[in-house]
Write a structure and sequence with these properties.
Length: about 240
């Protein structure tokens, strides 16, 4: 048993970076699908998940305007109703209630800063989940400081830390750095996954497709590990 545990922990770790925005219903769907895929991985503990900021509408006001459904009608015209029905149905399939007729797009910069604070306390996934549910299901204003304070507290963050964050520019550079990194990687849409620095892929693939993708990368890491270990040993023995 001890040898088995040692072998497991000696395996090369893998990192998944998720570029997402709270305003995107596909990000909520993708989050559920990735969780399902990760749940099927035997070595789940070796996989690190990192949430990255990617604002869909940085020009949005903090004051809610049109609903998401109304905005979609402006983008897609007659096709809007069909697309909205599809998004809601895919959400239901993942156990989500996506209320596009209640959600009102707002600026998400402060929400992203809150996620970075949560990440420093190991609560990034919990914080993102709370924000996505608040916006897409409850129709809350995720730009309003009072709402963000409550959501941060509910996610387990210290109230003082959240209060201080929202009255400062803390973690602003973290958000901007994520968005610069996204631009460098050619990411233009969300959710996008970057697995171990590889080219970005869509984060709304099915759980089965995501599971296969993750397993392929883990297999590649495990195949490369013995060669790397041998090379290291040879260098140590070289005169």
């Amino acid at each position: 048993m001890q040898r088995s545990n040692a072998a497991r922990h000696s395996k090369v770790p893998m990192k998944i970076e998720i570029y997402a925005d709270i305003l995107c219903p596909w990000c909520y769907i993708g989050k559920r699908r990735l969780a399902a895929a990760l749940g099927r991985i035997a070595d789940r503990d070796r996989i690190q998940v990192v949430w990255r900021s990617h604002e869909l509408a940085p020009q949005e006001s903090k004051v809610p305007g049109l609903t998401a459904a109304e905005a979609m009608a402006g983008w897609w015209g007659e096709q809007a109703s069909t697309r909205i029905i599809r998004i809601r149905a895919l959400g239901v399939a993942e156990g989500l209630e996506l209320n596009l007729h209640r959600a009102r797009p707002v600026n998400t910069f402060d929400a992203h800063r809150l996620c970075h604070l949560a990440a420093d306390h190991g609560l990034a996934d919990t914080m993102m989940e709370r924000l996505l549910h608040a916006y897409h299901t409850e129709g809350l204003n995720v730009a309003e400081p009072q709402t963000l304070e409550r959501l941060g507290n509910e996610a387990g963050l210290d109230p003082t830390d959240v209060h201080t964050l929202l009255r400062s520019d803390d973690y602003a550079e973290h958000v901007r750095a994520d968005e610069r990194r996204a631009a460098q990687r050619g990411i233009t849409g969300v959710p996008s996954l970057v697995i171990d620095g590889q080219p970005p892929v869509s984060g709304v693939q099915t759980p089965e497709e995501l599971h296969q993708l993750l397993n392929q990368r883990l297999t590649a890491l495990d195949s490369a590990a013995p060669a790397a270990s041998t090379s290291s040993t040879q260098r140590q023995r070289a005169p």
